[in-house]
Amino acid sequence: MTLSSGDVVDHRYVIEREIGRGGMGVVYLAHDQDGKPIAIKTLTFPPQIDVSARSPNYQRFIRELDVLSRVQHTNIVRFIAGGRQPTDRTGTLLWLAQEYIPGPTLYQQIAAAPGRIPVAKVVRWMCQLFDALGVLHASDFQHRDLKPGNIIFLTEDDVPKLIDFGVASSKQWRR
User: Fold this and answer.
1) Fewer CB atoms near the end CB (10 Å): N or C, the chain?
2) Is the Cβ–Cβ distance between 110 and 155 less than 8 Å?
């Protein structure tokens, strides 16, 4: 199921358009009640499927909600809200509202300027990301999917942000 422009999530987030699609779900650009842009990540279960903690996709989505709701850092995408709601068309929608970051990703930057990103800039980015990873690890979380496509930049100030915590791990989840 895809959401359409004008659809409302949690009675407060109005969908504008789809901005990404992955193996687990769809990401939309939306606006909150004040008109501020946010990203809404969704995972939909059809009516015939029981949404339960046994589903691997459900577990990954809940893990991402857990990590983002508990870890805050300048270089980690900011969590806003998350939840679950029934839908008329599809059964159950899990959703995660987070800071909207227009990009580009590190992957896109490398592709646009292969071998031409100044070393000093790369070192600055890596120091910021290592600091974010340190905060994650100190909170007992591991990202486990660190790659250029999961690092996105705030275009106005060139700040890298870690995104996509769907395969994160933690010792506390294995107990």
Assistant:
1) C
2) no
